Amino acid sequence: MTNFNNNIVKRYNPENIAKPVGNYSHVTKIDRNAEMYVFSGQIGIDRDQHIPPDMNQQVTHTMNNIVELLASQKLTPDNVIKINIWATEEIDWDHLYAIWDKVFGANPPSMTIAYVKGLGLPELKIELDVWAAG
């Protein structure tokens, strides 16, 4: 069993099940004294309220927005416990993981991915739900 941890969030990939098929942890455990943070879904909008038509640009903006949102609460990516990814078209995993690995490093949070017909605005191609503990 691999245990990645900080003082509040511990991550595990038990050896008795298949390894993750992506860059995520199977189990994320939160210290009982931690505060939970649940954020609204983050989208690929920039500070000027522009949503680019390109999926990779939306991914880049979304991940930047997540880092800034965490910082606004004095949290870091190490505090993220779970991310749900909702996408309306095929994800360029090389692009997403390049950013994902830069943000989360060797200890990524738990993750769920689903492809959906649509999101809250017609121009959105991706949205990420973020849960954190601090």
UniProtKB/TrEMBL annotation:
Annotated Gene3D superfamilies: RutC-like
InterPro entries linked: RutC-like_sf (IPR035959), YjgF/YER057c/UK114 (IPR006175)
Pfam entry (one): Ribonuc_L-PSP
PANTHER family noted in UniProt: BLR7761 PROTEIN, YJGH FAMILY PROTEIN
Name of the protein in question: Enamine deaminase RidA
Species: Cohnella abietis
